[in-house]
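ok, trying the design again with the full structure, not the truncated one.
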């Protein structure tokens, strides 16, 4: 059984080569974790985070730039140890932060499929039995026998997405930023991502894309300056973060495909009013980013 239990965890980054802050002090910073005012400044990327996730959980992480989403994902993947507090992760974690990680430019696409699969916790035998299916999905044809360095960015993404979506993770940790594929291929990738998530024991997914959050997650966590600001149903939390109903931004096609009811009651705050907190400038910036990003 997979599980994640994080108790009062903090992650600090001391910055030994920070420059004099006198200039910066006059500038109001909105993005990023809290920075302590010490001789060696410390970025408090996560502060006192507690979290309990179980089999079947599909959690979206939202928050402005520098809010701590990637740091939390790395903590959950066991890449970072908490500076204070505890993090107990049970289950095989497949961390997908950067599609290019584990890819070797000097070996062929086919060889890269194998290597990347091993990186993600699969066995050689498992990968060998999936190579043909992945190769088909990428539509890269003869290029699969050529070194990866000869591929365009979009071709690399096709290959990497093909591998990543072929694995059987117990805990899938997914960071955003899987861009640069054309629209038709995006449709194919969307279906595979959905299948991948449905066979994973647990998903934690950081994204600025409403469409992908709705597609893959049912609950959400809103991170703000290193802390969990709100946790709950996807629609409620993302609507509170964005200052508008999450469903408003979805295309009619997505609403239909996911069988969502636009008329279902809008999220309300504990005092009964419709949630619409003032969005910060950083949130607005993140929002602009959302609307331009096609993939998570
Ligand atoms: N290796 C590092 N060294 C120093 N500071 C770091 C490091 N990694 C992250 N931080 C800081 O920790 C804070 C949280 O960063 P993190 O990358 O987790 O944010 P994020 O929510 O993923 O942001 P974004 O949406 O912009 O990707 C930021 O203030 C960032 O500057």
């Amino acid at each position: 059984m997979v599980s994640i239990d994080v108790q009062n965890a903090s992650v600090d980054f001391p910055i030994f080569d920070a420059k004099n802050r006198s200039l910066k002090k006059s500038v109001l910073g909105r993005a990023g974790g809290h920075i302590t005012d010490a001789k060696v400044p410390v970025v408090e990327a996560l502060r006192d985070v507690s979290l309990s996730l179980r089999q079947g959980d599909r959690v979206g992480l939202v928050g402005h730039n520098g809010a701590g989403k990637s740091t939390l994902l790395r903590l959950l993947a066991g890449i970072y140890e908490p500076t204070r507090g505890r993090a107990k992760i049970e289950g095989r974690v497949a961390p997908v932060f950067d599609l290019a990680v584990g890819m070797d430019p000097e070996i062929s696409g086919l060889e890269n499929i194998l290597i990347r699969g091993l990186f993600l916790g699969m066995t050689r035998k498992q990968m060998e039995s999936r190579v043909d299916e992945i190769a088909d999905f990428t539509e890269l044809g003869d290029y699969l026998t050529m070194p990866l360095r000869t591929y365009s960015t979009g071709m690399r993404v096709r290959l990497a997405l093909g591998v990543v979506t072929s694995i059987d993770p117990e805990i899938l940790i997914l960071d955003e930023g899987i861009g640069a594929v054309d629209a038709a291929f995006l449709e194919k990738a969307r279906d595979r991502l959905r299948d991948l998530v449905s066979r994973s024991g647990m998903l934690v997914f950081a994204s600025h894309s409403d469409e992908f959050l709705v597609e893959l997650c049912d609950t959400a966590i809103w991170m703000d300056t290193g802390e969990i600001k709100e946790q709950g149903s996807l629609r409620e939390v993302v609507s509170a973060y964005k200052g508008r109903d999450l469903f408003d931004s979805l295309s009619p096609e997505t609403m239909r495909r996911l069988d969502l009811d636009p008329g279902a009651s809008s999220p309300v705050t504990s005092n009964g009013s419709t949630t619409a907190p003032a969005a910060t400038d950083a949130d607005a910036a993140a929002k602009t980013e959302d609307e331009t990003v096609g993939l998570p």
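Keeping the full-length input from now on. Residues 13, 32-33, 43, 45, 63, 65-71, 223 surround adenosine-5'-triphosphate (CB under 6 Å).
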